[in-house]
Specification:
- The structure is a single chain.
- With 354 residues, the protein is α/β, with parallel strands linked by helices.
- The protein folds into three domains: 137 residues, Nucleotidyltransferase, domain 5, CATH 3.30.420; 59 residues, Dna Ligase, domain 1; 146 residues, Nucleotidyltransferase, domain 5, CATH 3.30.420.40.
- Helices cover 32% and strands 32% of the residues.
- The strands form five sheets. Strands 10-6-1-2-3-18 form a six-stranded mixed β-sheet.
- Helix 5 runs antiparallel to helix 7 and helix 7 crosses helix 8.
- The longest helix has 30 residues.
- The N and C termini lie close together (12 Å).
- The N terminus is likely disordered.
């Protein structure tokens, strides 16, 4: 918790390869008040898979939107996701907290066979357990390429913002689920193990969260962009027509035998989402197989593709797990769609670790 920032306006930015979302908000210990929320189409080719490809183009677009929306805050929080971010669970003997980082940096090459000097490494203690008679620590390690961190820092600095927080999405989301009491006005989440799935444009991110702590975080390189490409291979739509038709289907689970354009359209959407589900299944099965008591009680969907009608039922039928599309949570006041700004909201929450 950064006490000096309580009740001050904070700018929270969620950069994406297709769309960038921004909120200006105030937070106290138990409530988030969002005063402004807006988005922009990310300039093509300027941002891909968590990497800034064209800083000049991106900063010009952001500067224009800040001015248009009369943004006054200079304190910036930023959330990223990338398939280049590595997360691992590691197990250490029970030692004093001050000794963990030294041990981690010494032993990390055993867990992550790569050039550690090229990564910014943080860790989070997930808990303690007994291995026979010896008590050990379960630690989540997060390694982010340093060039990703540095380029995001320079982007914010060049916009005359004060970069205070750079968080990766799974960590932010776990804190939001721990912070809230209910999702969608009635679903109690504190005792559940949740697979939170961001159905994004260039990638899909899954975070398995138990008791407010990340157990697994993975990003797969398939998302809404693949769906758009598959549709455009069959239909000659403008971007506007594609968007309207995609989000106005009756139900992606509809089964019809006639070979109409509408049914072909439904089928390509369903098949593409099922291909995402099949990749997610490997991650979910891996988590469940790790320990006998591992289970998932709920799947929480958010992000662009979660807005397709019937997608929750598609997931629920496939995994036989209760599935909901995020649309509301307590302790947060926002005047627009909270699903769209889920990552921005979650980044406002801080703790002393990762």
């Amino acid at each position: 918790m950064i006490l000096s920032l309580l009740n001050k306006n904070i700018l929270s930015i969620d950069l994406g390869s297709y769309e960038t979302k921004i909120i200006e908000a105030k937070k106290n210990n138990d409530f988030i008040q969002i005063n402004k929320a807006f988005s922009l189409l990310t300039p093509k080719g300027s941002y891909e898979d968590g990497r800034i490809k064209n800083e000049k183009l991106l900063s010009e677009a952001l500067r224009h939107e800040f001015k248009k929306n009369k943004i006054s805050s200079k304190t910036a929080y930023l959330t990223i996701k990338s398939t280049a971010i590595i997360t691992r669970e590691v197990f250490f003997p029970l030692v004093e907290l001050k000794e963990i980082r030294g041990m981690l940096m010494y032993q990390l090459p055993e867990y992550l066979p790569m050039d550690i000097s090229r990564y910014a490494v943080q860790y989070k203690i997930l808990g303690k357990f007994f291995d026979g008679e010896k008590e050990r620590l379960n630690i989540l390690v997060v390694a982010v390429p340093k060039d990703i961190v540095e380029k995001h820092y320079f982007l914010l600095s060049n916009l005359n913002l004060k970069p205070v927080v750079l968080d990766y999405q799974s960590n932010s989301i776990s804190k939001l689920i721990w912070f809230t009491d209910t999702i969608n006005n009635h679903i109690l989440v504190s005792e559940k193990t949740i697979a939170a799935i961001d159905l994004g444009y260039s990638s899909t991110n899954v975070s398995i969260i138990k008791s407010g702590k990340i157990r697994i975080s993975r990003a797969i390189e398939v998302g809404g962009e693949d769906l758009d490409r598959n549709i455009m291979n069959l239909f000659d739509f403008t971007k506007e027509e594609l968007y309207e038709k995609k989000y106005n289907i009756r139900d992606v689970n509809e089964i019809n035998t006639d070979y109409s354009d509408y049914n072909r359209f439904i089928n390509v959407i369903k098949k593409t989402i099922e291909s995402i589900i099949e990749k997610l299944e490997k991650i979910i099965k891996y988590y469940i197989s790790k320990e006998v008591e591992n289970d998932i009680n709920m799947i929480l969907l958010y992000g662009g593709l979660s807005q397709i009608n019937g997608v929750d039922k598609l997931f629920s039928n496939y995994f036989n797990i209760d599935t909901v599309v995020f649309n509301n949570l307590d302790k947060v006041s926002i005047q627009t769609d909270p699903n769209k700004y889920f990552n921005c909201i979650s980044t406002l929450l801080r703790d002393e670790e990762v």
